[in-house]
């Protein structure tokens, strides 16, 4: 009887240690944690000083810089900071097809857990003076580690019609993954409102 109790205890201890040792993703993006400075991000990702840290038009405390053509698959990587603390990274992919979207959903789910929310937005858009059309934006949310880390997949399609030729129809697509320190952004937004 004692052997059975010891065996059950060991099995429970082993399964508990496996659950604890399951790798939790970095609370940040890739090699950097949330809250590091733009200088540290430059160092880790070998981003030269010629890459300009731009200030947001909407808020002087929000800055970002971009890296283009990171790889064959990645068109753009944008690092965003609030008061020089990293809080968001956006990855835009060159291939914005539905096939790539499905692959990304699988990869993100394996790393960050099951999808926790879905939202679709549609509406009219005016991109250029002579271009108007309709847009559809699908947003898939993976919030298992919220509010420290929320991951979104954004798939955006714009169907454009030129005013001069109503039969001329073209499409522009965007597929990206957004990694966000949601708690920090929410706290900053609340502080701006005086809370």
Keywords, please?
195 residues, alpha+beta, eight-stranded antiparallel β-sheet, two-stranded antiparallel ribbon, 4 helices, 27% helix, globular
SSE map:
Blueprint: H1 2-21, E1 28-29, E2 32-33, H2 38-44, E3 54-55, E4 62-68, E5 74-82, E6 85-93, H3 98-112, E7 117-128, E8 131-142, E9 150-162, E10 169-180, H4 182-192
Antiparallel strand pairs: 1-2, 3-4, 4-5, 5-6, 6-10, 7-8, 8-9, 9-10
Describe this structure in words.
- The chain has 195 residues and is α+β, with helices and mostly antiparallel strands.
- The protein is 27% helix and 41% strand.
- It is built from four helices and ten strands.
- It has an eight-stranded antiparallel beta sheet with strand order 3-4-5-6-10-9-8-7. A two-stranded antiparallel ribbon has the order 1-2.
- Strand 9 and strand 10 form a beta hairpin.
- The radius of gyration is 22 Å and the shape is globular.
- About 6% of the residues have low confidence.
The number of distinct helices, counting runs of at least 4 residues, comes to: 4
Q: Give the total of beta strands.
A: 10
Rg of Cα set: 22 Å
Order of the strands making up the biggest sheet: 3-4-5-6-10-9-8-7
**Biggest sheet character:** 8 strands, antiparallel
* Rough outline: globular
Sheet/helix structural class: alpha+beta
Strand content: 35-45%
Give the termini separation: 60 Å
* Average pLDDT taken over every residue: 84
Instruction: State the helicity in percent bands.
Output: 25-40%
| Weakly predicted, low-confidence segments | 16-22, 163-167
Order of helices and strands: HEEHEEEEHEEEEH
């Amino acid at each position: 009887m004692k052997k059975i109790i010891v065996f059950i205890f060991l099995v429970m201890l082993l399964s508990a240690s496996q659950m604890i040792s399951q790798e939790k993703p970095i609370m940040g993006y890739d090699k950097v944690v949330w809250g590091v400075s733009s200088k540290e991000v430059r160092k880790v990702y070998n981003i030269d000083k010629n890459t300009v840290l731009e200030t947001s038009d909407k808020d002087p405390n929000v800055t970002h810089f971009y890296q283009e053509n990171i790889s064959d698959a990645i068109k753009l990587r944008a690092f965003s900071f609030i008061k020089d603390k990293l809080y968001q990274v956006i990855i835009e992919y060159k291939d914005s097809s539905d096939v790539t979207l499905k692959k990304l959903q699988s990869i993100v789910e394996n790393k960050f857990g099951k999808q926790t929310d879905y939202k679709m937005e549609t509406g009219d858009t005016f991109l250029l003076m002579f271009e108007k059309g309709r847009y559809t934006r699908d947003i898939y949310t993976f919030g298992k580690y919220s509010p420290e880390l929320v991951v979104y997949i954004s798939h955006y399609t714009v169907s454009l019609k030129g005013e001069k030729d109503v039969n001329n129809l073209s499409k522009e697509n965007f597929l990206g993954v957004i990694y966000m320190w949601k708690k920090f952004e929410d706290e900053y937004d609340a502080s701006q409102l005086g809370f």
